[in-house]
Amino acid sequence: MPMSMPRFLLLLGLALTAGCHGISYDSEHDPEVDFTQLHTFEFLAGPPEEQGVERDAVLLGILGEQLVAKGLQRASGQPDLLVAVHRSLEGVVHTKSSGYEVRNGRLSRYDLQEGTLVVDLVLAKTKKGVWRGTATGEYRFDSLPAERREKLTEVMRELFADFPPKR
After folding, report:
1. Which sign does the torsion angle of CA 11, 17, 18, 19 carry?
2. Which of 16, 79, 124, 145 could form a disulfide with 40 if both were Cys (CB 3.0 to 4.6 A apart)?
3. 109-124 burial: b if 16+ Cβ within 10 Å, else e
4. Which helix (H) or strand (E) holds 112?
5. How far is CA 28 from its chain centroid?
6. Rounded to whole angstroms, how far apart are CA atoms 150 and 145?
7. What is the spatial distance between Cα 82 and Cα 70, in angstroms, rounded to a whole number?
8. How far apart are CA 23 and CA 163, in angstroms?
9. How far apart are CA 118 and CA 20, in angstroms?
10. CA-closest candidate to residue 91, choices 154, 45, 141, 42
């Protein structure tokens, strides 16, 4: 029995929507660095045009928690690593124009924004970058604070899944 056009369009829309929240992850590191010898970190102040990242206490808090979970400790004195965070945000996609979205089993509407988050780990003594993790994808522009925290925690877990790298 052939599928009706409205039902087909709804299923196609739901399938495309399901992939909207996909995030791609990538990391690279200096294979000469023995990460087992690095024990402490501190956040590096970014350039003035990126000061918004430094005021994002939720993002930095979750990143710090992830680094601690990976065996590093935050130290303001003489850290082994400096952590630089960069992000870019691009346009807003308004799903309201499509007329539907699935959320908690119900149809709803919301805004998506494309973004990239880059985390660099830099040797404090030499200022040499030794690890970079990148997460790119869409995120909910209007998410609630608890949803944002949960999503950022998931992103950091995935970003640091293979950290510290093996030599």
Report:
1. positive
2. 79
3. eeebeebebbbbbbbb
4. strand 111-123
5. 16
6. 9
7. 15
8. 18
9. 20
10. 141
| Residue 56: Cβ within 10 Å count | 14
How many Å apart are CA 129 and CA 120, to the nearest integer? Answer: 7
pTM > 0.90: yes or no? no
Q: Considering only CA atoms, which of 58, 120, 60, 53 is closest in space to residue 87?
A: 53
Identity (one letter) of the amino acid at 29? Answer: H
Residue 26: both structure tokens together: 């990538």
Type of residue at 10: L
For every residue of 28-71, DSSP letters joined together read: EE-TT--GGG--EEEEPP--GGGHHHHT-HHHHHHHHHHHHHTT
| Burial class of residue 35 (count of CB atoms within 10 Å of its CB; 0-12, 13-18, 19+) | buried
Q: In the numeric block, which tokens belong to residue 159?
A: 């970003």
pLDDT along the chain (167 residues), means of 10: 38 34 89 96 74 72 96 93 87 55 62 83 96 88 80 94 91
Q: Tokens for 74, please give them.
A: 């935050």
Pairing of strands 40-43, 81-94: parallel
- Shortest CA distance to 124 belongs to which of 82, 73, 67? 82
Q: Is the distance from CB of 51 to CB of 90 less than 8 angstroms? A: no
Largest CA distance in the chain: 71
For residue 72 the two structure tokens come to 């590093």
